[in-house]
TrEMBL record:
It comes from Sphingopyxis bauzanensis. PANTHER family: ENOYL-COA HYDRATASE, MITOCHONDRIAL, ENOYL-COA HYDRATASE-RELATED. Belongs to the enoyl-CoA hydratase/isomerase family. GO terms for molecular function: catalytic activity. GO terms for biological process: fatty acid beta-oxidation. This is Enoyl-CoA hydratase.
Length: 259
């Protein structure tokens, strides 16, 4: 692993740490690639029966590093770029090994989606969640729309996606977006306790339970993520997307025209 991603196996739990605290664990290309490798390593390790995701420092993850947002390698289309990044989302969703998220501080954009992709979410009382892609002139591409609708309900998903507003841990708990809220000092131990408890159970039974429960919304979520790919590819080409980028760079309020 690189310095930006750590992985440690304890009590049959692979603890994957996002380690870019100076950027609130926002992911650039190198960190995203290392993260995918860490997930694969944990999934392929027979000693691992559950996977815990956590962030070093004050935040869980703030998604794509804004310095890399919209940056493409020469000759790579928006569709191809997003399609490649979505493979990691399906790595988590399709995993037979369950994922537990320990969420401290900001879980913003792709970081919020990363938490939502996990099977069980434990948040500290300081956690804040938002899907602010609309402020960047784009839309979610990691299941933010469809997973939020599945766990919190359609109208709450619309509110989060249409406003980009943040909610705190208490609100996220009330809406079903997290499963437990604990004091900040207890976050890592509580999340590890849950992951270890699952890891101690028969792995085939755990995998079967995950598969049965995911079957309720699984096909809808996977279809929704593929539809997000089409939507975001189209939105990258809009004038309002370019206006959002320009306004951000110029530190001014954007003027959207619906074009």
């Amino acid at each position: 692993m690189t310095d930006s991603i750590g992985i440690d196996v304890t009590e049959a739990v692979a603890v994957i740490t996002l380690n870019r605290p100076d950027r609130h664990n926002a992911m650039d290309n190198a960190m995203s690639a290392a993260f995918g490798e860490a997930i694969s390593a944990a999934q392929d390790d027979p000693a691992v029966r559950a996977i815990l995701l956590r962030g070093e420092g004050k935040s869980f993850c703030t998604g794509r590093d804004t310095a890399a947002l919209g940056v493409r390698a020469p000759g790579v289309s928006d569709f191809a770029h997003v399609s490649k990044s979505q493979k990691r989302k399906f790595q988590i969703l399709d995993s037979q090994k369950p994922f537990v998220a320990a969420i401290r501080g900001y879980a913003i954009g792709g970081g919020c989606e990363l938490a939502l992709q996990c099977d069980i979410r434990v948040a500290s009382a300081t956690a804040q969640f938002s899907l602010p892609e609309i402020d960047h002139g784009i839309i979610t591409d990691g299941g933010g729309s469809v997973i939020t609708a599945a766990v919190a309900g359609p109208s709450r998903a619309k509110y989060l996606l249409m406003t980009g507003e943040r909610i705190d841990a208490a609100q996220a708990l009330a809406w079903g977006m997290v499963d437990f809220v604990v004091d900040d000092a207890d976050l890592d131990s509580r999340a590890l306790e849950i992951a270890s408890k699952i890891a101690a159970r028969p792995p085939i039974h755990v995998a079967m339970a995950k598969q049965l429960i995911d079957g309720v919304h699984g096909d809808q979520i996977r279809r929704g993520i593929r539809e997000e790919l089409v939507a975001i590819s189209a939105l990258y080409k809009t004038e309002d997307r370019q206006e959002a980028r320009a306004a951000r760079n110029e530190k001014r309020d954007p003027v959207f025209k619906g074009l």
